[in-house]
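Extended Data, panel c. Modelled sequence:
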Amino acid sequence: MSELQKTSVFGGAALVLVALALLTTPRRAAPDAFFDVGETFFADFTDPEMATTLEVVEFDEETAAAATFEVTNRNGLWTIPSHHDYPADGAERLANTAAGVIAITKDDFRSDNVTDHESFGVIDPLDESVSTIRGRGRRVTFKGASEQVLADLIIGDPVEGRPGFRFVRVPDQNRVYAAQTDIGLSTQFSDWIETNLLGVERDDVKRVALNEYQIDERSGGIRRQGEFTVDWVDQDTWTADGTPAGKEVDYVQMNLLVGGLMGLKIDGVRPKPEGLSGNLRQAFEARTITNADLQTMQSRGFYPTQSGDMLSNEGELLVRTDIGVLYTLRFGEILYGSGNAIAIGDDTSDDEETGSGENRYVLISAEFDPDALPEPEQPSNRDFENKPEGQWTDADRANKSAADLHAQWARRTEEGRARAEQLSTRFAKWYYVVSAGSYGRVHKTRDDLLEDIEEPAGPAS
């Protein structure tokens, strides 16, 4: 064999060995694992306005149970189904949260091994096939108007050393990613509802009345201290009839009380039975109130009477606005607990001291008080309407002024009646639960609202 032939043979053998090496060497998985890094999770979900329902499921390790928070739009009305379908102020917040989820990208692939899910905190909180209670994430689901799923994601533990990043995965998929998830997601009941429960501003409140009494639960008797009514004069002055000698209304305390009304914070709600959401006297006559309904009310500190009135454990606060809306806040029983025990009254009893929080049941009603807007005198005639203004007599001018005042009164009366009706509908269905702090800011005695009159300083010696 010539040298050239030998070289050709060795060269061919080398090529064969290289080919065999390429064929038998294990392929690296890394390129396949990272094929979708940088992509969004839900390519078809691009418009936040498509979302009409948000569902968030969280796992409570202490109770070993999943808790669901849901807000949805049904027939144009935003409600919170997980909280007895309480009305929600949810459109803007839901759109913002949806936009945050749309923007989440698969920033960094971490694992496709199911055994890593616990350490990353991305076990589905609804997965009953997994025995461990640790390592369960928060499942966030968005749905559209036809209940189609737009996005569904499990958000797990924070990624160490990368602020704003968490481990995430799509349910029914093993792949786990690190992703930036600063989406402003809240499951706090108070973040999704109208925060100004009464809908009043500082300048609206013109009269406050304390109806001070207490119910003796053992005897059923009533300990009355009477009523104390305070009227607004100007920013620094409130006045009250029957003020004891040497006392005056403390305008600072009154302003704090009004501030407490503006910031009255709902921590929870309970639906009233159907018979208790309307006129109590009619409900008694129609016998739509059951003994169970009455027992529930009494356990919460409220005592309906056969005449259609309502009494409460800790008296009442009446608030009247400049357009004649009269609110009545009735203060009931203490409620202990925290979390969903307060927000919705879950399996934790309302009647036991189940937590460190101390809260208070409150019933609220609204009606129009015509005494707030006395009708002004009407014009004696309307002859001025048929004359040029330059030909008006003094009587015409007086009638024009009277007509303007009466029209203004009619507009304000109509506004007050409409507002009272709107609020009455809002309050009629609910028991409210407020925090001890909110309760303390609006539940006052007359002594709280009075101060000693300062004696004028004497002449300098």
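Residues 202-374+423-452 form one domain. This feature is highlighted in the accompanying rendering.
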